[in-house]
Amino acid sequence: MNTVNHSKTGWVFTGSNGDFCLKQPDRSSYLYFPLVNEGGMMSSVSPKLHGQVTSGHNTFLTPPLSVEDLHNSRASRNFWVYVDGKGAWSATGNSARQNAAMYGEEADDSELEAGLLWHSITRESRKLGIKAEITSFVPAGNDKVELMKVVLTNTSAEELTVTPTAAVPLYARSADDLRDHRHVTSLLNRIYTSAHGVEVQPALSFDERGHRVNHTSYGVFGAAEGGGQPTGFFPVQEEFIGEGGSLDWPEAVVLNREPQIGAGGGVHREGYEALGGLRFAAVSLQPGHSISYVLVLAIGDERIEVAALMDKYGSARAFDAMLQENKTFWAEKVNTVEFHTSDPVADQWMKWVTLQPVLRRLYGNSFLPYHDYGRGGRGWRDLWQDCLALLIMEPGDVRSLLLNNYAGVRIDGSNATIIGQQPGEFIADRNNIPRVWMDHGAWPFLTTMLYLDQSGDLDFLLEQQSYFRDSFMARCRERDASWDASAGSTLQTADGESYTGTILEHILLQNLVPFFNVGEHNNILLEGADWNDGLDMAAQRGESVTFTSFYASNLLDLSRLLRTLKERKGLETLELAEEMTLLLDSLHEAVDYESVSAKRGLLDRYYAAAPNKVSGVRSELALDRIADDLARKAGWIVDHLHRNEWIQSNQGDGWFNGYYNNDGERVEGEAGGNIRMTLTGQVFPLLGHAAAPEQIPQIIAAVERNLYDEKIGYRLNSDFGGIQQNLGRAFGFAFGHKENGAMFSHMTVMYGNALYKRGYVKEGRKVLDSLYSLSVNFELSRMYPGIPEYINEQGRGMYTYLTGSASWLLLTMVTEVFGVKGKLGDLLLQPKLMKDQFDQDGKAAVRTIFAERGLDVVYTATSGAEYGDYQIHSVKLNGAEVTLQRVSEGVLIPRSVLTALPEEEVHLLQVVLA
């Protein structure tokens, strides 16, 4: 990536492990930071400590919020200081007085320091002569707690007497209750005070699950330096703020009122909005002296064992030790992959990108301020794309994940769309909405093929797995009246036995069914939508040419994989469900692929043969014949796309049409001076086999001309004009926002990946650099290090942290840019580094995992040549020369060479390029 003038980025890296600082972070709106652990605690924190604390959709400790609430809501994790003779001051900046002074000379000075999942904000009032440093993190492990340490320092020249009060609103219920019975559900609150804090355990929960006895408990607990307990409590929000007061100017603090509940607590309250209001003893601070406080925000499955909790977390010593533990934990997780190039800023930025797939696994697509939709968990597509990063970072876990994931495939080639909490647990969709995304069947094979290349584990294809079954059939066009939920969610035979098929059978099914599921232009039907969820209003006549090309590539690669199976495993035949042989039409009665009606007719016969159950009879088919059938289908699609979907521009370049709308009209092209073009429509032909070599330069030229914008990078589409009611909701968005013409990181990274794959390294580098440069330009992007879901018309990074594009960028950097990839289990080195990516010593390096071994792959360019002018000259493994096995792509190192090495060490591969 190109070197960026880092002085203009706002934040600055302060070490070598991704730590960064940012002055006056509260002068930028919409900033937030994730704090999470693998036990299910999910928090977010803004520069003023707004954000939310939750363990799931129905268990919010603090009020659920959207990104606008970060600056509009008065509710936050607040820590008040009453300074004798000077008045109230918020250590988090959340007072009416401080907000009013934001743009004046009396504004606080603030500075953020943050690292891999820890967050520290320092705020100082020159007028009051006081400074606060607040550090927050969620400790690694399984405890649902968030910790805060507040250090108050007297920066004046005189003694200060201060009275601290912690004030954290305790929402303590489901997000559904935010506007639906907000007051009524507060009547359920049972509020307890104890020696260290305030706890709420509502009597019942009112949400979509019904009226249930509630067991979950929520609390805010604290201790002063040396273990000092609070001297009193404000457990009821309305009593804390006072009549006419507010959370940003509460009577109890502004007038320094004594709490009604004194030290030791023991007083219960019921039926009110709760507050973790903890009053600490007044203290006199000499100039330069400090005092610290620790707060513990906790969610328990039952009433919280407060004494044990505080014993574990409630001291500065425990806080500091666990903070260090937390830093070590996340550093070890992220540092399994590291980069070294000529740009150290880009190398550290990639640490945050590497963290993002882990964050998406833990948060799903919810529970951060921009991600204020959904109820947690991930969708079908997320499962497979997140595994791309896991194959690089944590490959040991991937086999079982993939195996479980295939249990979500239906016998009609569609799949469950919502992933349950347990491995292999699937749900059709929330609220029983029958919807099929036509691209879903394409992703599993792409991810599985990467796994096979990384592992060489061809036996995985022959593993048995069940199929998902619910009331939907024929790709959700029909209902199965005979289905009984009590019978379970796995496919059964006519005899009532659970049916299983090989993973290869699942893959074939998901790619064969779409081939016949075509619209009037003989491309695969769009159905509910494809990858672009915003194309959701063309379910009847819409077609996705884009993913038709993806399925074509899958069919061809599957054909080749079958021949590899025969060659490497000696496999001559394959058993498939008898009904599936219909889809391999050339094995019995070949269908005319030019005929839409013939293809649809065959698919209808298949649905009739396998109506949400199968006979259980298996047919044994010759592997070669299946491979021939798949290749025939793939070849027909590619020829069809070239004949019917290529748009030759008047400007001398060209591109592929990506879609047909619900009126059966071609979406893309040139008409009346208006150019309609999608980036998605070009990416998938480039990624696979559909784009011919001679078409690639024309596509690149068309993308540069029609979609590249210097301000925001590569747009997802040109301006179509109008709302496109016959295509999708995306076009109701303002142009330049989200799926309508923004720079959508996912497709931009995939475009870069495709260009690298096809040998257009300079062009691919430009694509990745555009995304990097935009992301780190803080003046525009206003985001912390990492990659956003998209960049809007103004250049602001949107929907930060949770995006599948991070997996693709990590994959692209390791396997394409640095060229460390697998080829059916062997290590293939195929670097595509450009001259300026090597440091001043001519070196570029990547740390990664392959064959369960840690590898430091160090490239040294001896000649200083540009990409295309060098090749691999020699390779040393731990100092010993490796005999080179050259292939057309680069150099192969047999897996056996690596598996002979000790597992616990990181091994050095020195590669000389000349």
Automatic annotation (TrEMBL):
InterPro entries, alphabetized: 6-hairpin_glycosidase_sf (IPR008928), 6hp_glycosidase-like_sf (IPR012341), Gal_mutarotase_sf_dom (IPR011013), GH65_N (IPR037018), GH94_catalytic (IPR033432), GH94_Enzymes (IPR052047), Glyco_hydrolase_94_b-supersand (IPR010383)
Start and end residues of each Glycosyl hydrolase 94 supersandwich domain: 122-314
Pfam families per UniProt: GH94_b-supersand (PF06165), Glyco_hydro_94 (PF17167)
Every Glycosyl hydrolase 94 catalytic domain range: 634-819
Gene3D superfamilies: 1.50.10.10, Glycoside hydrolase, family 65, N-terminal domain
Keyword Transferase among UniProt keywords: yes
Record keyword Transferase present: yes
Protein name: Cellobiose phosphorylase
Organism of this sequence: Paenibacillus jilunlii
